[in-house]
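Hi Q.,

Before the meeting this afternoon, I wanted you to have the adenosine monophosphate prediction in hand. No need to reply - just skim if you have a minute. The sequence and ligand are here:
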Amino acid sequence: MANSIVEAVAKQARRQPERAAIIFEGKTISYGSLYGEVERFARALVVSGLQRGDRVGMFLENSPAFVVSYLGAHLAGGVVTLINTQYRQVELSHILTDAAVRFCVTSPSGATELRSLVLPNLTLQIIVEQNKPVAEPVAERDASSVASVAYEAFLRRGDGPASDAVSLTIPASDAPAIIGYTSGTTGRAKGAMLLHRNLVANITAITTAWHWTPDDRLLLALPLFHTHGLAVGLHGTLFLGATAVLRRKFDAAETLAAFNDDPAISLFFGVPTMYGRIVAEAQEHGAPRHLPRLFVSGSAPLSPHLFLEFERIFGQRILERYGMTETGMNLTNPYDGERRAGTVGGPFPGQEARIVDTDGRFALPPAVIGEIEVRGPHVFAGYINRPDATAEAFSPDGWFKTGDLGWVSDDGYFTITGRARELIISGGYNIYPREIEDVLASHPAVGEAAVIGMADEDMGEQVVAVIVPAVGEPPTAEEIVSYCRERLASYKKPRQVIFVASLPRNALGKVQKHLLSAQLERGT
Ligand code: MLC
Ligand code: AMP
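Predicted structure with the ligand bound:
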């Protein structure tokens, strides 16, 4: 068995080079040609000075170049740092500095965004133009004195004379593979480090549980810079030598049309917002004739109503599962058994999960709500630069504290009921109120600010900012929204800005967000 995803691709390229790996905008990329490009990219990185363990940032939309660069970074001995393309100044400065990113694969607009920042570790930007391959370097040096090179020109470094001396080795299973940023309870996201063996253990469990085979074809419209699209969708495909039909982004009408146009599509993975839009589309224009054999939902709670509505229209039950950046996938409804609405099923093969008391940390019996803990070979190696947070995240006997609350039924189905940490999940993206509160607090016209999540029909939850204006000219809601948008990912901007005279606080001065939410729901 392969010890890494890139090793699986190398093996597949030897065994069945003609087999389709990725289909993107009508173009099919075989395993043979994919691996050829991966080797070129890896050699180019080494020729350009990459040392084993160096961080390679992926700040890029979905494309074959993403897949090539990702695997190429691994083959060169690099560690991939995943960066959401919506991130702006605050997130980018923190992540690229914290992870000491040396090479960054990005788009022209991503490069422009990075140019305004001080990033001492960054030595080279590799720029992917989505629509026209650029033959020559875009610029030798840009304003921030970070060298840039066009993706195509960079690949050519991988077959130039300097690359002859480069010998590539498949990464060791214990080597670091990816850093995913998550959980900013302190306002700053932490980089979760996953090893190649964590990724392989998880994808082995996932493919087994979901009966995923080399003959499956996945419609992959999730972003590759997060766990769901990458460590489930892309990894499963490549690990098995299967095929993914990759999309730049999700569109409900296009998704339903694709099921009809390509009956070989057998799998679809999405966040609940995507399923809500698919259902709405089918209600208006009808369900397609052909359907994948398996629909999987995760990253946010799938409402029982949507689960049932989907079943009514499509005649299939969505398989809901539960995961995290730190662990990949933890819990899944069964493929063959009952897929139960409102639950996330039980542990994947080879993994353990339990419910513990949040104070005493002892295991709780069925039907009692506590915190979900998980253990197994899929669990990450720790947060980079944060030994304190890593130590805090694990129990002495190796259980990872997920921060999610739930209970388990007598017959082993877990139900998630809430979160022990403050977290808003909007359209499958995690948003930490503290990060937005910090930005709001830096606005001169804001006296105090609290951010809460309120129900949203499309996105599940939406960001609401509650503001006590500072003395003087009060800010407008528009000003507040654009202030956030300049500094943070656009999906984190408040959808509502509410001005109040004071925030409800407890005796210790802490904002009582449950009271605030209740007040807003009542409209008082
Ligand atoms: C986009 N926008 C959002 C948003 N997505 N706002 C709030 N929440 C979101 N999730 C905003 C943009 O900022 C932009 O605003 C406007 O919507 C249009 O952007 P878009 O890209 O065209 O949006 P859309 O196509 O509608 O995106 C919706 C979506 C997308 C559901 C397709 O959010 C998505 O791909 N979500 C998947 C996230 C994901 O992969 N999560 C997995 C994390 S891993 P403006 O104002 O700038 O125009 C994980 C572990 C696990 O959680 O268990 O899987
Ligand atoms: P992230 O930190 O971005 O990896 O997001 C992981 C979080 O998403 C988990 O800790 C949960 O809070 C949430 N999550 C993932 N899957 C589900 C699900 N099926 N139901 C409810 N919450 C989920």
